[in-house]
């Protein structure tokens, strides 16, 4: 797992000196944008004197744990999550954004939204809500257990293209040394704002976290931190 750079931590204000409360969040394993969102939230919670820990699990398992209250919430999910998981309370404003993108080994076309991939065989990661929602109703969709397994399946021609967050896909392809074979198409399918969620037992914490997110967004600190984290992950050996 990537480690946050000391330079990024310098962006944070000093946390209060009293003993810290602990919040445990589900984090989808081996998804780089989840790492970035988690470290952004670590900065937010530090302002409240709260320590974060993460439980790395597959996407569907994360929702089982968080909605049941076995962990305290989710790092970042699409904005409609509470509709299907009413025990998870959305924190506003958005903490981050993702850009679902098409990766392929052979195809060349200009991407024009989700409908432009409808006629292809597609790989997605099970439990990633943006990919599941965007490909819903399409004929040939394979849900894989992890991002890395999906990249390997695309390399093996198990489907014609895969969909994942652009940043996460670039990291995974490079990790497997497949940059010469697998490439993204442009532009991304869309930009989606993603939100932090807390289990309903922490409902009183929601406005406090939201207020800090809004303050750090207005000051530009969140954008600066995100940029530094993305650069860090993309340049890691």
From TrEMBL:
Report whether rRNA processing shows up as a keyword of the record.
Answer: no
Gene3D superfamilies the record matches: Periplasmic binding protein-like II
Q: Which key words are in the record?
A: Signal
Q: Does the keyword Translocase apply?
A: no
Signal peptide location: 1-19
Domain of life of the organism in this record? Answer: Bacteria
PANTHER family assigned to the protein according to its UniProt record, in alphabetical order: ARGININE-BINDING EXTRACELLULAR PROTEIN ARTP, MEMBRANE-BOUND LYTIC MUREIN TRANSGLYCOSYLASE F
List the protein's name.
Answer: ABC transporter substrate-binding protein
Species the sequence originates in: Bradyrhizobium betae
């Amino acid at each position: 797992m990537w480690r946050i750079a000391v330079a990024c931590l310098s962006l944070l204000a000093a946390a209060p000196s009293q003993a810290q409360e602990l919040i445990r969040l589900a984090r989808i394993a081996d998804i780089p944008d989840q790492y970035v969102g988690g470290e952004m939230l670590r900065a937010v919670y530090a302002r409240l004197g709260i320590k974060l820990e993460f439980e790395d699990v597959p996407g569907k398992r994360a929702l089982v744990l968080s909605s049941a209250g076995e962990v305290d919430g989710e790092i970042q999910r699409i904005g409609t999550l509470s509709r299907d998981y009413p025990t998870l309370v959305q924190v506003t404003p958005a903490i981050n954004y993702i850009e679902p993108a098409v990766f392929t080994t052979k195809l060349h076309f200009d991407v024009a939204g989700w409908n432009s991939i409808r006629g292809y065989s597609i790989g997605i990661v099970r439990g990633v809500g943006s990919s599941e929602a965007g490909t819903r109703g399409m004929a040939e969709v394979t849900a894989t257990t992890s991002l890395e397994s999906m990249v390997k399946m695309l390399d093996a021609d198990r489907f014609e293209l895969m969909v994942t967050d652009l940043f996460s896909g670039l990291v995974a392809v490079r990790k497997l040394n497949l940059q010469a074979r697998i490439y993204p198409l442009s532009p991304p399918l869309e930009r989606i704002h993603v939100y932090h969620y807390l289990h309903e037992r922490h409902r009183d914490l929601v406005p406090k976290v939201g207020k800090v997110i809004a303050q750090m967004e207005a000051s530009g600190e969140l954008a600066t931190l995100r940029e530094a984290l993305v650069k860090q992950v993309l340049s890691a050996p």
